[in-house]
């Protein structure tokens, strides 16, 4: 009840939620209370904890729209694996959070259902695409939320709203029930106020799932916290390409201070180079749209959600449904992706992008021969003003320059707050080795 009343008082301004499932949540809470009163002591690790879920994650009986008109009215008949796991842990799903349409965007502004505002400055964007999941935690509407990260969509809004966000290793968390954007890059992950909260939610959602063929079938080791934080023996690399032109002075200063702090905790810090970084963004903006163009073909007005009225035949119905149902950024991605995959252009664009992806992976492999983790800014800037980049897709794409290489390589990475620049939050990104999510969380905890 207290969470619902907090949402009722701040969300009309923040706009973090597309749907608040108040009745559903209260019903769950009452059932948990009744079990407790009856003497039941067998509760899961998140019993009674309200969790908000990004609206591209299927929730049985609760509308799931991906913030798109084309899915308006779609009520999934099943739960995503992560939602099933949340329910089994005793968590209470409080509602569905706003996002960039189909998770395509970096500001939260491409939602068909209105913008989300940054709680630190309501004239600014909260980042995206998991805009609502980040803002809901930052505005203290919920203690925990789930987002998805294809190219930065958890870490980037976490950084811009001053909360913690983890993108797990690709394959640790099941994608079953996550509406696919770019299947080889998408991963669900947690938001919270601190590293410990994020670790607890990660433990609940990660693990084997036969319904997702890309799931690694691995259970992460338990994340243990406690004692004096120490980073003795930890080798950290600082890739110089992440501090290039375009990074704001305030962001650079906070990240450099954080690196000093990591050294004071006992870590050894050394500069390194990931030379293919400069090509990662271009490769991503071929690969992600290519995969999206295939994944989004299922939205045709027949199977899900919205259907345009009054068409005289099937093809016209498809065309009008998509014309009316998809927003401009989604259409742009489908067209770029279809183009990059079409015969004659496949070798020049898609194949080339995959080759660049391999180079990015090799860069990281080389670095992890010498280092346990890498340290970078999460975003080169602080939160920008609403509308500032909306008409300039290229400058919007540049906002993900520090987060995208990590998805291309399938690595885990976390963003933790590292202070403020001009009153706005700055995020520190820590990148770990494959399936070293537990060590990464422990490292982030020591820093925090
Ligand atoms: N901003 C990036 C994009 O628009 C990443 C989005 C994401 O991680 N879902 O593709």
From TrEMBL:
Pfam family, one: Amidase
Cited function: Allows the formation of correctly charged Gln-tRNA(Gln) through the transamidation of misacylated Glu-tRNA(Gln) in organisms which lack glutaminyl-tRNA synthetase. The reaction takes place in the presence of glutamine and ATP through an activated gamma-phospho-Glu-tRNA(Gln).
Residue span(s) of domain Amidase: 1-441
NCBIfam families: gatA
Originating organism: Symbiobacterium terraclitae
Protein name: Glutamyl-tRNA(Gln) amidotransferase subunit A
Top class in the EC scheme: ligase
Protein family membership: Belongs to the amidase family. GatA subfamily.
Catalytic residues in the record: 54 (charge relay system), 129 (charge relay system), 153 (acyl-ester intermediate)
EC numbers for this chain: 6.3.5.7
GO molecular function: asparaginyl-tRNA synthase (glutamine-hydrolyzing) activity; glutaminyl-tRNA synthase (glutamine-hydrolyzing) activity
Catalytic reaction equation(s): L-glutamyl-tRNA(Gln) + L-glutamine + ATP + H2O = L-glutaminyl-tRNA(Gln) + L-glutamate + ADP + phosphate + H(+)
Subunit structure: Heterotrimer of A, B and C subunits.
Native organism taxonomy: Bacteria, Bacillati, Bacillota, Clostridia, Eubacteriales
